[in-house]
Structure to design on (98 residues):
């Protein structure tokens, strides 16, 4: 996946995962009734923040990681027909592992 967006500092570019369209009971949800998921795939990462000594502290997630993020911590934007979120590393609360 290629994008022209490059996060700065300790910011991370995430593409939100699609939400379920059918509930466990088999009810089909219309687009307006779906809650936006708080999971996404990391598309790009910034170089990291600077520590007190001026040295870079790298971001702890990698491109391709699936992450869970805070509900209101993101800046939403569209680029190339896709929707992305820009998050600070602190707004990511977990990495999903299989």
């Amino acid at each position: 996946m290629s994008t022209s967006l490059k996060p700065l500092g300790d910011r991370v570019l995430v593409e939100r995962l699609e939400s379920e369209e059918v509930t466990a009971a088999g009810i089909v949800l219309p687009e307006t009734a779906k809650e936006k998921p708080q999971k996404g795939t990391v598309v790009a990462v910034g170089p990291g923040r600077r520590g007190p000594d001026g040295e870079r502290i790298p971001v702890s997630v990698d491109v391709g990681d699936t992450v869970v993020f805070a509900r209101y911590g993101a800046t939403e934007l569209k680029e190339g027909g896709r929707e992305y979120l820009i998050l600070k590393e602190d707004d990511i609360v977990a990495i999903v592992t299989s």
Summary: The longest strand covers residues 39-45. Residues 11-96 form a domain with the 10 Kd Chaperonin, Protein Cpn10; Chain O fold (CATH 2.30.33.40). The chain has a mean pLDDT of 85.
